[in-house]
Specification:
Layout lengths: L10 E2 L2 E2 H8 L28 H17 L11 H12 L7 H8 L1 H29 L4 H9 L1 H37 L15 H17 L8 H21 L22 H11 L6 H7 L5 H30 L11
Antiparallel strand pairs: 1-2
């Protein structure tokens, strides 16, 4: 017979906790071990299937080793932040920047600078907002996001608009190729018409066909836009060459085609809204945002924000340099295709 007594040695206010405990808790009787020698009673530990402590420690160590060996592998495919930056910057800095001196002429010098800064900030915010909405909606493409927000009509509308914009842009690039490359080739090689095969670069139509079939089309077959990082870097280098050429050769142009120096630093022009349209077209990159975001090796909103900020910053300084260097030379005589001619 065993007796369990709870004892509290503390006495509070003259009250003996020991006596209260003895009266509150009764004695618990437990069966003694009189049946230990009973043949019909088989004693077996409750945890008989558990290994010894040493074996358990070994198993625990093996589990820890396995967990350490099992590492989550980061995605091995996709581009880096730098490659995504090149693609987005190239998406912004395209043929549209040729019209920026004309936009400054329409808006005025100081108003043009203000519009360029304001639209850069707006585009930076809207591109990141687009990705944020895609995350909230659980959609990974522009088309799916439009369908989620506006239903089937939204999907049809964005598909039509994106096709029209892309088709028009490709046609514009073909026109630019036909207006520039043959003239440059003929000026460098006056007798190119007499050279077999090479003469096609001096022909407008054949030149457009060649670069479309053997340059633009193969590059458009990539499913991962991160593969175009090197091509984007080459395109950005070409843009820098154009800007440097305009800045160096502009002041040396004939006075007959140069504009009035009195209008160089005017405050505001007469066609501000037309200038907004030209600058906005130069900064169009929303249609590529989801593609660039998905091409990141570790896509996240923070990493994409870094890509966006750097791309917008480089695009702003590039556009600013070309717009100012072109406008200050031609001022009121600036036209949209002045630099192409």
């Amino acid at each position: 017979m065993s007796e369990l007594i709870l004892v509290d040695k503390n006495i509070r206010g003259g009250y003996d906790a020991r006596s209260a405990t003895n009266t509150e808790y009764a004695e618990f009787d437990f069966e003694d071990a009189s049946n230990e020698n009973d043949d019909n009673n088989h004693h077996q530990p409750l945890l008989s299937n558990i290994d010894s402590s040493d074996e358990y420690d070994n198993d625990e160590e093996s589990l820890i080793d396995n967990s350490e060996q099992k590492q989550y592998k980061l995605p091995s495919e996709g581009g880096t932040i730098f490659s995504s930056f090149l693609n987005m910057a190239n998406s912004i800095i395209g043929a549209g920047i040729i019209g920026l001196p004309f936009a400054f002429k329409e808006a005025g010098f100081w108003t043009g600078i203000f519009l360029l800064i304001a639209l850069t900030i707006i585009v930076d915010w809207t591109v990141r907002l687009l990705m944020y909405n895609g995350k909230l909606a659980g959609r990974s493409t522009y088309q799916d996001l439009m369908e989620f927000a506006f239903g089937r009509p939204g999907l049809i509308a964005i598909s039509i608009f994106q096709f029209a914009f892309a088709f028009g842009g490709m046609c514009a690039y073909c026109v630019i190729i036909g207006d520039t490359i043959p003239h440059v080739v003929r000026s460098l090689f006056p007798k190119i018409h007499q050279v077999p095969v090479i003469w096609l670069f001096a022909d407008r139509r054949l030149c457009i066909s060649f670069f479309t079939l053997f340059v633009s089309y193969p590059l458009s077959l990539y499913r991962d836009i991160s593969k175009l990082a090197k091509t984007s870097a080459l395109a950005l280098a070409a843009i820098i060459v154009i800007i440097v050429s305009v800045a160096i050769e502009g002041p040396g142009t004939s006075t007959e085609i140069r504009g009035s120096s009195d209008l160089m630093f005017n405050l505001m022009g007469d066609e501000v809204f037309q200038a907004i349209a030209v600058i906005s077209f130069a900064f169009v990159c929303h249609h590529n945002s989801f593609l660039i975001f998905g091409s990141l090796k570790q896509p996240s909103l923070n990493r994409f924000a870094v890509v966006t900020h750097w791309s917008m910053g480089i695009a702003f300084f590039t556009c600013f340099a070309l717009a100012v260097s072109g406008y200050l030379v031609f001022t009121d005589k600036t036209v949209g295709k002045q630099h192409i001619e």
